[in-house]
Design goal:
Distance between the termini: 69 Å
Strand content: under 5%
Number of helices: 10
Largest sheet: 2 strands, antiparallel
C-alpha cells in the first residue's frame, strides 16, 4: 500500500513535529530529575566505585559533558545564531529544533556520564530526608509554573508551529511581570538551583553536576539579561533594578518602585 503524498493533509505537520519534540523533552526532563538525584543512571559505570587515580578523569569527562550542553543551550539561544540557523530551519520550527537539540544534549550527557558514587553528605534523619524531597518538589513546581507565567507553549515551540499551520501570523509574546516574577527575575533558574542543591543525598558526581550547572546558570542568565536589556530597553532596566536576579525578595515591589 502506497501513500499518496499529494492528497495527504499536511496542514498540521509542523505542529505534529513540535508536539513530538515536546514529548521528547518531557521524557528527557523527567529522566534528568531522577538522574540528578542518582535514582536513574544509563551510564556505563553506574554504581561502580571510583579509584582515586580515576577520579580526575571522571571529573574531566563529566565537566566536558556539562560544557557541551551549556554551549549548545547558549549558542543556539543567541540572536546571531538564530538569524543564520533560520536559513536552514523554517522560522516557525526554530524553537522546536532548539528543544530537540537540548534534549539530545541532555541525553548524551546522561548516557556518557561517569558516576562518582562516593558520598558527600546524607540527610541524618527521616524528617530531614522528607524536607529535602519536599523542597525538590517545590523546585519542580517553580520551574513548571515559571514556564506558564511567560508562555509555556511559546517556550517549547508549540505556539509557533500551531500559528503557522493555521495560517496565522506569529506575534511575539509581550514582556510580563506576574506572580513569581514580582519576587525574582529568573524563577525558572531558581527552581533548577533548588533541584540541584537541595537533596537528601549528595554524591561527588552529583556535586560535579550541581557545580557545573550552577556555573552555566550564572553565565546563561548574564547573556539572557544582556539580550533582554537590548530588546526591551528602559522597561527591563527598571525591572532589573527593582527585582532580585536569583535570590527572591519576601515581598513584591510597589508599583512606584518603592519597597
Amino acid at each position: 500500500m502506497f501513500i499518496d503524498w499529494e492528497k495527504l493533509d499536511m496542514r498540521y505537520l509542523s505542529l505534529a513535529i513540535a508536539v513530538a519534540a515536546y514529548g521528547l523533552f518531557a521524557g528527557t526532563f523527567a529522566a534528568l530529575l531522577l538522574f540528578m538525584h542518582d535514582y536513574f543512571s544509563p551510564s556505563w559505570g553506574a554504581g561502580v566505585d571510583v579509584c582515586s587515580h580515576d577520579l580526575l578523569n571522571h571529573i574531566g569527562v563529566d565537566s566536558a559533558l556539562i560544557v557541551l550542553f551549556g554551549l549548545q543551550h547558549s549558542i543556539m539561544a543567541r540572536r546571531s545564531f538564530k538569524q543564520r540557523w533560520t536559513r536552514i530551519v523554517p522560522q516557525h520550527l526554530e524553537r522546536t529544533a532548539y528543544v530537540i537539540a537540548s534534549s539530545v544534549a541532555l541525553i548524551v550527557m546522561m548516557v556518557y556520564w561517569h558516576p562518582i558514587p562516593m558520598l558527600v553528605w546524607e540527610a541524618g534523619s527521616v524528617v530531614m530526608w522528607w524536607l529535602s524531597i519536599a523542597a525538590g518538589v517545590m523546585g519542580v513546581v517553580i520551574v513548571l509554573w515559571s514556564t506558564f507565567l511567560t508562555d509555556h507553549f511559546e517556550l517549547f515551540g508549540l505556539r509557533q508551529a500551531y500559528l503557522h499551520d493555521r495560517g496565522i501570523a506569529w506575534t511575539p509574546v509581550p514582556f510580563k511581570k506576574a506572580a513569581l516574577y514580582n519576587f525574582v527575575r529568573h524563577p525558572m533558574m531558581l527552581g533548577m538551583l533548588i533541584l540541584l542543591w537541595v537533596t537528601p543525598r549528595m554524591t561527588q558526581g552529583h556535586l560535579v553536576l550541581a557545580l557545573g550547572f550552577t556555573l552555566y546558570v550564572l553565565i546563561g542568565v548574564y547573556f539572557e539579561e544582556r539580550d533582554l536589556r537590548r530588546e526591551l530597553g528602559p522597561e527591563y532596566e527598571s525591572y532589573r533594578r527593582s527585582t532580585p536576579m536569583l535570590i527572591p525578595r519576601l515581598w513584591p515591589v510597589a508599583p512606584n518602585g518603592a519597597s
